[in-house]
Structure formats: C-alpha cells, structure tokens
Design brief:
five-stranded antiparallel beta sheet, 11 helices, alpha/beta
Length: 342
C-alpha cells in the first residue's frame, strides 16, 4: 500500500487525464487541535467521489456537498486557488468535529493540470524527491527536484509541498517476526524487501507484495541502495548474517538501522563489531538496539508492533520519551526488583 499522499495524487491524475473536473484540497494551517496534520490532502471529483482526508469526516462531507452539485466544479474550472477556514467560532468548530475549538485552513486548487500531475508522478516513480510550488495569486505551478525531504512551507504567496518516493524497509531474516513486521510496514506505506539466504525459510514465506531476495545480506544491503527514506532491520539472531549487513547499513544514509536481541546480546554485538569489524562506539552510535519501544511485548506480533512504532517515530522525527526506551525501561525494572528483594 502506498502513502496516502501518493494515492491522492495518482487518483487525482487519473481523473484529470480523463478530463474529469476535480478539486485538490490541502491542509494549509491549523490552530489548536486538529484531526489531520498540515499538508494532509484530499481530492474530490465532480460526482462526489473522494480520496484522502483533511479532517475527521465532517469537513469532507461539507466539501463534497458543495462540489458534487451538478456543474459546481465545471463552473469553477478556471478559478484561482482559494483559502477557506473552518472552525473559527466555537459553534462551527463543534459542528465540523474540530476538537477543543480548533481551526483549520484549507487551500482549494481547482482542476490541477493533468500534464503536471503526470510529470510529478513520473519523477517520484523514478525515486526523486520533488517539491511542488503553487503561486496562490496566479495559480502557477512549479516542479523542482529536491536534495532532501521538504516539509510544507507557506509564505502567504507560495505554497511549497515536498513529495518523495515511498519509504523502504529491508528486513534481514524471513522468520515469523519478519512476516508480522513486513505486513505492518506495508499498510504504513513502506515498500518492503526481505533478505534470507537460508533456503529452509523460502518456502514458508507468504507475505504478498514483499520482495524476497536470497543473496548474502551484506551484498543485498548494497544492492538495496539505502537512502534517507530507507530503514534496515536485522532479525535473524545470527552474527554471520546480521553483522556484515549492519556494517554496510551503518555506512549508508538509512534513517534507521537496528537489530533484534536482548540487552546482553546487543552489548555482545557491539563488542564483537568493535573487536572484529574495526568499529568504534562513535561509528556504532546509529545502531539501534534493543529495538522497539517498551510495551512489555512478548509475542512476535507484539514485538512487531513495538518495532514498527519506533521506526515510524524516527521517520516522523519524533523524539521518544526515555520511558519508552527498552534498555532504560528494563534496567529500571531490574533495579526495582532488586530493591523489592532486599
């Protein structure tokens, strides 16, 4: 499953390529609490069909009512972009389901050019990071390749929105935990590759839309070509498979590199890589372990939830509180237990 942004762009492009009228709606600014973040998008076709969302549902319903009226979008075919606010008053905020009197400002862009949508999608499909800039006064659209992911930026004249190819995940090991984690990554919009050279694991692999590669993990990491939208996670517990793959991953720009294992195993892994693979504490600073957030997980499914939550936090550049760090939480639990035994 692709990210919701790409799904919106692809569906909008399909409508416009078929010469159907549509409006692209983007969350421009928010004040107070809001159900969807700045940059969230939806598209509405002239018959009321919709993809994406900008709120909990009530604002979508209001927009659909307006634009699904006969000829409503056709009449605005050449109209310049418009800004629209919801929830300015407490009464309106309540009516549109905005919590705590929140306010949301939307940008409505009528009938984006099909040729520019196609160009943007083609470049994203080639793995490029792109910025789409819209001039609110004239409706002019510019597409530029970016060096790094760009957050939405609005200066009251131009709206700049960054788009990127799908986030990718490479898993080392095709065991049961990998099946759960790969499935969760797919529905969070990641493109997933699983590497395992052990033939006995190949026949049992049954997760659709996941590429299974069978070379040695360190070679497959190089072939994978990690970029800043990639994460690499070792799940085999086998140093012969994990260590060299992690070595290649740590030298890459991947935003997340981690390996499964207990606190003891993680310490042994670090010591082993320092002694035998010429690593240092500084070069291993990027290596996550024990991976995941602390939720008391025991089963493969729960461990996958824990790992996926941490990956998403790093993807979204969220600093997690120390209480969720597995190492710190378990160290604290050990100290409490020792105190209770005295």
């Amino acid at each position: 499953m692709e990210s919701i942004d790409l799904l919106v762009l692809r569906q909008l492009n399909a409508w416009r390529q078929a010469s159907q009228h549509a409006v692209l709606v983007t969350v421009l600014q928010t004040w107070g609490s809001s159900p969807r973040p700045v940059g969230a998008m939806m598209a509405i076709r002239e018959d009321g069909r919709v993809v994406g969302s900008v709120s909990g549902g009530c604002i979508e319903d209001d927009l659909i009512r307006q634009f699904s009226q006969t000829g409503a979008l056709a009449a605005q075919a050449l109209q310049l972009p418009q800004r629209r606010q919801y929830g300015v008053s407490a009464e309106e905020a309540h009516r549109f389901g905005l919590p705590c009197g929140g306010t949301i400002e939307l940008l409505l862009e009528y009938n984006p050019k099909a040729s520019q949508l196609r160009q943007l999608l083609d470049q994203l499909d080639q793995g490029m990071l792109m910025t789409r800039s819209l001039h609110l006064t004239t409706g002019t659209v510019r597409l530029q390749q970016s060096i790094q992911s760009e957050a939405l930026y609005f200066d009251d004249e131009w709206l700049h929105v960054g788009f990127g190819p799908r986030f990718r995940m490479l898993l080392i090991g095709a065991g049961q935990l990998s099946e759960y984690l790969a499935t969760m990554a797919l529905f969070n919009g990641f493109e997933v590759t699983v590497c395992d050279p052990r033939h006995q694991y190949h026949q049992g692999w049954a997760v659709d839309k996941v590429q299974l590669v069978t070379g040695m993990p360190d070679d497959e990491v190089v072939t994978f070509g990690p970029d800043p939208r990639s994460c690499i996670i070792a799940l085999t517990h086998d140093p012969k498979l994990d260590d060299l793959a992690l070595l290649e991953a740590l030298a890459s720009p991947a935003f997340y590199v981690g390996a499964i294992g207990s606190r003891k195993n993680h310490a042994l892994r670090r010591a082993r890589m320092i002694e035998h693979l010429e690593q240092t504490e500084q070069s291993l600073a990027k290596l996550k372990g024990p991976i995941g957030i602390y939720i008391g997980s025991k089963t493969p499914a729960e461990i996958a939830v824990s790992i996926m939550a941490e990956v998403i936090a790093y993807k979204n550049k969220v600093v997690l509180p120390s209480q969720l760090n597995v190492q710190l939480a378990k160290d604290h639990a050990d100290r409490v237990y020792e105190w209770e035994q005295t």
